[in-house]
Specification:
The complex is a heterotrimer. By secondary structure, chain A is mainly alpha-helical. Helices cover about 70% and strands about 0% of the residues of chain A. Chain A is built from 16 helices and 2 strands. Chain B has a two-stranded antiparallel sheet with strand order 1-2. Classes of the chains: A mainly alpha, B mainly alpha, C alpha/beta.
Chain lengths: ~325, ~290, ~425
């Protein structure tokens, strides 16, 4: 597992301290934004924060564990529905609904662990199937469909001001990234790294592979649930079309891969970069922005498939020091003469 | 009930035709082509264009469009996919998604996003009866065409040199290379075939029902489903899978229209969980 | 990849440099208040977002051309509070995505500082837009959503709707068929599972009840349904039915007519929705369009007066020659949005012409005639209209004529319809 600093021999604790220090810098940089720019840009910033959060969550299962979940947006959508139903039908406060969102999606993720029997493509497809199934159920089931009989969708009154939402999401994202840092540096993180490399080998080394996959999956599902619940009053209209759009899932995946899967900072960089590109193309190329967006994806994946972080690293990597004693390959034992 | 089955089979022929290419590409090259649906739509719209704007009769337009789609697919393989292919397979997924977006957007800029359907005058009588079910002639002709094309593809794979190379790449890639089979050329040819058969399916479909550029994702998903049911690595499997999927989709739309998607995808999920290699698959399904 | 030390420094430096340059460019391009705001001083700034890419691209283009057509018609200047001011439009693409619409509306109001907002297309998008507009106390005139949710949630205090209520669309069609002899006794509906279409169906149900027409089946289809053969099969299995009604959009009409005609289902009347006049319907169906009934929000043969055009026919003719295609009624609706603003701003207070509260008051009191029909709003901001004209297609190379109400009718209708 790479942190941004492929440095020499930093200890685990030191690396954690460094990462949290960067997180603090990040927080300080973002804190004054509502006072610097107008409402439109604050709104954009909120979307960037949400994308960062979703991408970082996806990264846990898709990047660290290597299981590309193609239906992951379902957890965000479910969270939004939980938020909407709780606030509108039951009048519960937002904070409660955020917790509820995370719980509901976490439990549902737990229920779907059988799909972990498969790998790669089949796992991806199963997760997509789950998304599409929930898409249909949420639309048809009268409990989730809307408040009254023929309603499709929930109108949720915003309970906070725009600035309030900004700080709410900023807080959520900071906590989210903090937990990702901790997870990545913990035993779970190492286990995920191992099983991503070679699951059979990891299992034979005694790593309880299923347990860690489940932990990763639940973690990666719960956070979008929380974010989704907070999203409901922010977007003020929750329906299958607005929150279960394939775009959320695709953005999560793209942002992570674009920035660099399997790193803590990759999804953050990727989400910001994609949002910047998106804003620029949207604002300035009215009819061609989708084309440009697609072309950019093709360009990046064709010429820099490792993502931005690996691009950056490969451009700045120091010349390798002469290393006469290379690390011995697995299975061989270095014998000192 | 028999009418549901018959109409489902009629549709299924075209689904199978569209899915052959997808299964071939996944089995031989090892990538999931998210741009697959684009080939179907492209083939259909090009057929429509050739028939209406250039006035070609239906069958030549169909064939020409299929070939053109094949060339497009081969080109995409050579220029883009081949480069990324050696990296993470995940990235090819994203790349083909990007390619699908680009091709769709270009299509919209040239053709507009409007739905189009082709009216084909055949001299045939309107149809005939199987039991109590009325079978429209044109649908039946297209169904036969799908079966024939499937047969042609089968022969192509079993009997020709290209087919041997394809099977070698699919089953034992390293030995194939050791035996002097040019991997990249085989891949390009595979993509050509995939594109051509998908374009053919699209060209047939547009004579039955409207197609528009934004419909590509549905066709990609449909091809996934057919392949999952039928199994990877088997042409017969795709054919059977297509027919079964046709019946399944029709039946769920008929009996439970508003929850049809949930039903269809739940069945897909069950297949994925309990029989990931499909009905006829050759067990390569758990490759990561 | 190893690099020499010198090369390494250069490349890292160049990355940092380009990053810095990029950052500066970004900052100046977006965050710093743009010079655009100054450029519109002395002009009325209209703003809108439309689904210019994606599934609704075609209809969005018509709206956009409709706005542009209005601007050309008034020669890019209108009278506001006695003064002449120029006209300027800012148009964004929202991909029919409600989150995007909310963002763009925020941008229009706070960054671009528009004076008048033209509504979005679709129910969810208009709700999202009006929610943002309401927070800024802005008015919105929209012609893109017929659902009653607009009335309930944002109508009157924020949003003014130029489209008639969804439930009123098909009332006249049922009334028309009820005048036929022998009068129809049975009807089967195809209902798309989405609020607007449920509202259409509710209107039909109510009117059928009052005419004693029995609803023998209501076949529901999901919003993104692709294949209509299952529905056609179910309708066939019902046996003879007098009316089949599909209150939906053009593609539904095309697909359903194809399947019904292929399977040999022959109702005495087929109501094909409110977009039968879209050219692709005739292109796709050809002679199968004969005797199909549709409702329309507007037709060029109607006799409406307008401040700028003598008749809808003149409007259509000028529009077609300007843009090179014959539009559907959306063009007239779109044109009517800035036209309504134009009327409301005529007598605005010159000191504060774009005060939104005064603008809303003016809109509430407004009553004028346009090429789209008479415009005045009820207390929910909904346009007052008596219902949709009914048209029917005649001949083997079908041409549409209005058949109901009598005051507008150009031809007697055909009942029962010729078999497919």
């Amino acid at each position: 597992m790479r942190s941004l600093f492929v440095g020499s021999g930093r200890s685990g604790a030191a690396r954690l301290r460094l990462q949290f220090a960067w997180l603090a810098v990040f927080a300080l940089a973002l804190a004054p934004i509502p006072f610097l720019v107008n409402d439109y840009w604050v709104r954009v910033a909120v979307f960037v924060l949400i994308n960062i959060g979703l991408a970082s969550s996806w990264n846990i299962i898709g990047g660290f564990a290597g299981y590309a979940s193609f239906g992951h947006g379902v957890f965000f959508g479910l969270g939004a529905f939980v938020g909407a139903i709780g606030i509108v039908r039951y009048g519960l406060p937002l904070l409660v609904m955020m917790v509820a969102g995370g719980l509901v999606t976490g439990v549902i993720a737990l229920l779907f662990t059988p799909i972990f029997k498969q790998r790669g493509l089949y796992f991806a497809l199963s997760s997509l199937a789950v998304l599409l199934i929930f898409d249909n159920i949420l639309q048809r089931w009268s409990f989730t469909r809307g408040l009254r009989q023929y309603d499709v969708g929930w109108s949720v009154q915003p309970s906070l001001s725009l600035t309030g939402f900004y700080y709410t999401f900023l807080g959520l994202i900071l906590v989210l990234i903090g937990t990702v840092i901790l997870l990545a540096g913990s035993r779970v993180g190492y286990a995920l790294h191992a099983l991503r490399r070679d699951e059979v080998l990891a299992s034979s080394l005694g790593i309880r592979v299923l347990k860690y996959k489940v932990i990763a999956f639940v973690f990666s599902a719960a956070w979008p649930g929380v974010l989704g619940a907070a999203f409901a009053p922010f977007i003020s209209f929750v329906s299958v079309q607005s929150v279960l759009d394939m775009k959320f899932t695709l953005n999560m995946i793209l942002a992570t891969l674009f920035g660099g899967a399997g790193t803590v900072i990759g999804p953050i960089v990727g989400a910001i970069a994609l949002s910047v590109i998106d804003q620029l193309t949207w604002g300035n190329f009215l009819e061609y922005h989708r084309l440009i967006f697609g072309a950019l994806i093709v360009a990046i994946t064709t010429f820099a498939p490792g993502g931005l972080v690996s691009l950056f690293l490969s451009l700045t990597r120091r010349a390798p020091k002469a290393r006469p004693e290379a690390a011995p390959p697995i299975g061989k034992v270095k014998v000192s003469s | 009930m028999e009418d549901v089955i018959i109409y489902g089979l009629l549709r299924g022929g075209i689904y199978a035709l569209a899915a052959f290419g997808f299964s071939l590409v996944l089995g031989v090259i090892g990538i999931v082509n998210f741009a697959h649906g684009v080939f179907v739509v492209f083939g259909g719209l090009l057929t429509h264009y050739l028939a209406t704007k250039l006035g070609l009769p239906y069958v030549p337009a169909l064939i020409l469009a299929a070939v053109a789609t094949g060339l497009l697919a081969g080109l995409i393989q050579r220029l883009f996919i081949a480069r990324t292919f050696t990296s993470e397979p995940l990235m090819v997924l994203v790349q083909t998604f990007g390619i699908a977006t680009v091709v769709t957007e270009l299509g919209i800029h040239y053709w507009g996003s409007q739905e189009r359907v082709l009216r084909v005058e055949t001299g045939l009588p309107p149809g005939f009866f199987i039991g109590n079910t009325f079978v429209p002639s044109f649908d039946f002709v297209l169904f036969l065409l799908s079966l024939i094309s499937a047969g042609v593809l089968y022969l192509l794979i079993q009997k020709t040199r290209f087919g041997r190379a394809v099977r070698a790449c699919r089953d034992e890639r390293q030995s194939a290379q050791l035996n002097g089979i040019n991997l990249s050329r085989t891949f390009e040819q595979t993509m050509f075939v995939s594109g051509a058969w998908s374009g053919l399916a699209g060209g047939m479909f547009i004579a039955l029902s409207p197609l528009a550029p934004y419909m590509d994702f549905d066709w990609t998903i449909n091809s996934f489903l057919v392949m999952v049911i039928g199994g990877l690595g088997s042409m017969v499997g795709v054919l059977v899978g297509g027919l079964i999927f046709g019946v399944l989709a029709f039946a769920s739309s008929f009996y439970v229209p508003t929850v049809a998607p949930a039903v269809t995808f739940s069945i897909l999920l069950l297949f994925l969980l309990f029989r990931p290699q499909g009905l006829f698959g050759s067990g390569q399904g758990t490759r990561k | 990849m190893s690099r020499e030390k010198g090369g390494l420094d250069l490349s890292r430096r160049s990355i940092l440099k380009s990053a810095a340059a990029g950052g500066v460019a970004l900052f100046t391009a977006g965050i710093v208040p743009s010079a655009r705001a100054q450029a519109t001083a002395g002009k009325v700034h209209f703003g809108c977002s439309l689904p210019l890419t994606g599934t609704y691209e075609k209809v969005a283009r018509i709206y956009r051309d409709g706005y542009d057509f209005w601007a050309r018609t008034v020669n890019y200047e209108i009278t506001v509070g006695g003064k002449t001011m120029g006209v300027r439009w800012t148009v964004y693409d929202d991909e029919n995505n409600p989150s995007r619409v909310a963002q763009l509306t925020e941008k229009l109001i706070t960054s671009d500082r528009v004076n008048c907002i033209a509504g979005a297309y679709g129910t969810d998008t208009n709700l999202a837009q009006s929610a943002v507009a309401a927070r800024h106390k802005f008015a919105v005139i929209q012609a893109g959503a017929a659902s009653s949710r607009i009335d309930e949630e944002v109508g009157g205090h924020t949003t003014f709707t130029l489209v008639g209520a969804a439930s009123s669309y098909y009332l006249a069609a049922i009334d028309y068929l009820a005048t036929k002899t022998p009068s129809p006794k049975t009807i089967a509906l195809v209902v798309v599972d989405d609020p607007v279409y449920h509202e259409h169906a509710a209107g039909i149900r109510e009117r059928c009840a009052s005419h004693n027409i029995k609803i023998v089946a209501e076949e529901m289809v999901p919003l993104n349904v692709q294949d209509f053969r299952p529905t056609a099969l179910k309708l066939k299995n019902l046996g003879p039915v007098d009316i089949i009604a599909a209150p939906a959009w053009d593609v539904v009409c095309i697909k359903l007519v194809q399947e019904l005609s292929t399977l040999g289902v022959q109702p005495k009347a087929f109501i094909g929705g409110h977009l039968t006049a879209n050219p692709i319907v005739k292109q796709s169906l050809g002679s199968r369009l004969q005797d199909v009934i549709g409702v329309t929000l507007w037709a060029p043969s109607l006799k409406y007066k307008d401040p700028h055009f003598a008749s809808p026919a003149e409007f259509l003719e000028k529009f077609s020659s300007t843009y090179g295609y014959t539009p559907t009624y959306h063009a007239a609706m779109a044109y009517a949005i800035p036209l309504t603003y134009e009327q409301a701003l005529k007598n605005a207070d010159p000191a504060d012409p774009f005060n939104q509260e005064k603008l809303k008051a003016a809109l509430r009191a407004l009553s004028y005639d346009s090429v789209f029909g008479p415009v005045s709003f009820n207390e929910k901001g909904r346009i007052r209209n008596e219902g949709m004209p009914v048209l029917q297609w005649f001949g083997a190379d079908p041409v549409a004529k209005i058949v109901y109400p009598e005051s507008m009718a150009e031809a007697d209708g055909a009942y029962p319809k010729a078999p497919w």
